[in-house]
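Please, why this fold?
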Amino acid sequence: VQCTGDTHIDDHHTVEDVGIVIGQALRKAIYPVQSIERFGNATVVMDEASVTCDIDLSNRAFLVYELPIGGKVGTFDVELVEEFFRAFAFNLPLTLHLIYNRGKNKHHIIEASFKALAVALRRAVAVNENAGIPSTKGVL
């Protein structure tokens, strides 16, 4: 991903815009869902850190973000991690839960959260020919 933004002010809009664009691109690739698992989850460890991600490709936007981190990693405001995931979840859309299990190093916690999302997403889009349209309403 390459993005040029107003980082001379701060990184907020740039981080948010990247989440929006990635979410919209995946929306075009995934919806309407058919013959996929739809649900995915993963727990990823990064050294001492552990983060769990659960997702539902429900075409309904929701974010549960329980990563108790703040401050900075280098010059990056850690609060923007939540902004990325919110923009991503609401533009895909999907239901996304990110839950902190343990860890102290902010970089490791953040990296584990992104990797957990990637693994959960891979599992959710796995082809399952028996799944049909995975919804009791018949449409996603």
In short: Strands lie at 39-46, 49-56, 62-66, 72-73, 76-77, 95-102. The helical segments are 12-30, 79-91, 106-124. Residues 1 and 18 are 8 Å apart (CA to CA).
